[in-house]
Automatic annotation (TrEMBL), chains A, B:
Organism: Plutella xylostella (Diamondback moth)
Keyword Lipid metabolism: yes
Protein name, UniProt field: Diphosphomevalonate decarboxylase
GO CC annotations on file: cytosol
Alphabetical keyword list: ATP-binding, Cholesterol biosynthesis, Cholesterol metabolism, Lipid biosynthesis, Lipid metabolism, Lyase, Nucleotide-binding, Steroid biosynthesis, Steroid metabolism, Sterol biosynthesis, Sterol metabolism
Length: 391, 391
């Protein structure tokens, strides 16, 4: 019957944080942001889209569950891809009138707060753009789904330009450098348990934008300077500089959340213990060897060069013991390392109680969305999900 | 033999926070601050000073323990009071050459992090000024002991002017309004347990001053505007405005601590639960009835008008149950209150585990330092402590 396209897309973790919108509907940010795109072989969203004349309605299955297609952000993405295709004349009008079936899955728990919507919307929009043969930059379409999704449209190190046009036409992502430019860059994601209900990013950004005095200074002075500086650090592969800016910007993002009214917090005491541990380790090394960054949740993403990974992982295992060590680490393989008892003794943080860090994912900077060409679609020939669906 | 003078002095809790020095030695602040002075009948420092020709050295006993008088801040205070006395010609030069004995006690645990050094230095300097008959403003001398001590030299609502003179001559405290101006103002101090070692104020201020980008905006824009606004609110007895500025400024102070590099935190998860509780209560009331403020530690000071106290205390007892209810509250008496189960049901915070708040002190805005005229000195006629000393 119709056509099916399948794509995988990466998550990205910002080092200069996006926080605050100048347009809620178009998802236009107040400031530029910078991120690294992470390897899809470890964490990714996978999306199949089908279009067929027989489909009676647009349908989406998300992580094994049928969801409403009436979601405005989803609608905006689909409409925009079709409009772009129509403008480019890439497919015929009849094809554009067919309904679509979408099936999308993340290969990591969405509940872990790991930027799943960025990967998901980048994947959806890339798949739709491929289906409709859109040739122009799709980052501004992915942005309509979830702001940070526009950065997942490219691999390597990516900058999302805030832009200034009210239409959002210049609010797009561009690549600063590909993943091969700095092949030693690695990330350890520390998933921290969180019992409290959290403030959604959308709501939190709105409160900060409306009430934080300090946000104004961040937007006007701090972010422009840091964006320039971290771009230079990436191009020069200057890890200590990259790391310092990354940590300072994470801290400042959480500071403006606290300066909001009412204030809100994403960092837990475990997050703060991780921060203290990293500063202590860097101080012992007399060089900034590791950077932490925290999104709107308690999980840490640690950036470091490949040579540091075995030592850092050993320290994390020691300070944050797990009662299930075999399931503690996933992703790329890590070699064993000895860490001198001297370093462990000097650390400002003592061994914590078990399971404060639930698990760790080891990954690296990787490519942008890629086509799945081996035929392993998530939709069958009738446009129905191949995997089990929970009703 | 010599002369003995005894004084009691109050603690004060800032509503516009002092954070950052422009001169470490003279303790000159980067910004103005505003506080309320709390009733000495509930919390105070008490200090006796004696001078006698027979004394061979300056000696100080602090909370039942002999301490070194070589402490620079202590030396600066004593030297400055004597210089002032000499300049004013208030006592004869021979008297100024006698050594002093000082005995000082707080009637509340110093470890609780309740601005004990502010009360202590205000008390010491006021006692010394009385001994040497200094007539001019002594707030700038108390400032040399501990910055915020200069605010404890006056009762009611007090402003510490940052000043601009490098000598510190204009960095003094003045009274905005006496305690009788707004007699309904009350404070509940919630003492929260804290296991972690904390960053000292002195060290924390230094890190923030040297590293926080956001502090610059706070100093230049936020504090001047807030100081003007809260002064108006105090003079107009506008509680909702007073409370809103108080909470925003507390949050901003903690935000700049987080924006420091390395970042540091004073608020614990219990502190954040208290913040959430107060915002939820105010929202239910559809009016800002209670303000929280946190100094460099996890304890909350809640400001409210007298009429709210029974209800708020009942809510605190319910949400933060104590395993020793009879010792949970001290200070002024509180009437029992019924809080409708409707309000309790609507609160965003559920009942917590026991003893997260260790105890509560109920107090009000009060007078500045006062002379103890009933002869209940802390030093006997030989200039030795009357109460037991721990060696």
């Amino acid at each position: 019957m119709g056509y099916t396209v399948t794509v995988v897309a990466p998550v990205n973790i910002a080092v200069i944080k996006y926080w605050g919108k100048r347009d809620e509907e178009l998802i236009l940010p107040l400031n530029d942001s910078v991120s690294a795109t992470l390897d899809t072989s470890v964490m990714c969203a996978k999306t199949s889209v089908s279009a067929a004349p027989e489909f009676t309605e647009d349908v989406i299955w998300l992580n094994g569950k049928k969801e409403s297609f009436s979601n405005k952000r989803l609608q905006n993405c689909l409409r925009e891809v079709k409009e772009r295709a129509a403008a480019e004349g890439s497919v015929d009008k009849n094809f554009l009138s067919w309904k679509v079936h979408v099936c999308s899955e993340n290969n990591f728990p969405t509940a872990a707060g790991l930027a799943s919507s960025a990967a998901g919307y980048a994947c959806l929009v890339t798949a739709l753009a491929k289906l409709y043969k859109v040739k122009t930059d799709v980052s501004s379409i992915a942005r309509l789904g979830s702001g940070s999704a526009c950065r997942s449209v490219y691999g390597g190190f990516v900058r999302w330009h805030a832009g200034s046009d009210p239409s959002g036409v210049d609010s797009i992502a561009t690549q600063i450098a590909s993943s091969t430019h700095w092949p030693e860059m690695r990330a350890l994601i520390l998933v921290v348990g969180d019992s409290k209900k959290k403030m959604s990013s959308t709501k939190g950004m709105k409160i900060t934008t409306e009430t934080s005095e300090l946000l104004k200074h961040r937007i006007k002075h701090c972010v422009p300077e840091r964006t320039t500086e971290i771009t230079k650090a990436i191009l020069a592969r200057d890890f200590p500089k990259f790391a310092e800016i990354t940590m300072k910007d994470s801290n400042q993002f959480h500071a403006v959340c606290l300066d909001s009214y009412p204030p809100f917090v994403y960092l837990t005491e475990v997050s703060h213990t991780i921060i203290e541990l990293i500063h202590s380790y860097n101080e012992i090394c007399r060089e900034t060897k590791v950077a932490y960054t925290f999104d709107a949740g308690p999980n840490a993403c640690l950036y470091m060069l490949e040579s540091e990974v075995p030592k850092i992982f050993k320290i994390i295992k020691t300070i944050f013991p797990s009662s299930n060590p075999t399931k503690f680490i996933s992703g790329l393989p890590i070699n064993d390392a000895d860490v001198s008892t001297d370093i462990l003794g000097k650390l400002a943080v003592r061994t914590q109680e078990h399971d404060l860090i639930k698990y760790v994912i080891y990954t690296k900077v990787g490519e942008g969305p890629t086509d799945v060409l081996d035929g392993s679609h998530l939709l069958n020939e009738l446009g129905e999900p191949i995997n089990e669906i929970v009703e």
